[in-house]
Amino acid sequence: MARRGYIFTDKSESGKGILSAFFGALSLVGLILAVYLTFLNQGDAYVKYGVAGLLCLLFSVAGLILGVLAKLEEDRFYLFAWIGIVLNLLALVGVGFIVYAGVRGL
What is the pLDDT of residues 13-27, one digit of tens each? Predict the structure, then answer.
């Protein structure tokens, strides 16, 4: 008997997980863009790039919290929750590295 792609479950993706993945992608793109534009400006960072980095930090913290809350929900699919957790952790590590490099003068 051939499989027809039917899924007999009432599970669905969590809205918190989808929002977490969106925040993670937004944070990573914003952070990469701010670093790239600073690089194009020969390392002279404008205040707006710092504000963008701060917003990326806030979005990634909120997205990480949402991802963990989405992972704790029962009877849900967890793909977007895991994607959101990973992307937000990457954004937090990126912001942490930028702060560390600024303090240490790298």
Answer: 888 999 999 999 999
Burial 27-61 (b: 16+ CB within 10 A, else e): bbebbeebbeebeeeeeebeeebeebbeebbebbb
CA angle, residues 81, 70, 74, in degrees to nearest 5: 115
Give the number of domains in the chain: 1
28-83: pLDDT as tens digits: 999 999 999 999 998 888 999 999 999 999 999 999 999 999 999 988 889 999 99
**In a domain? residue 72:** yes
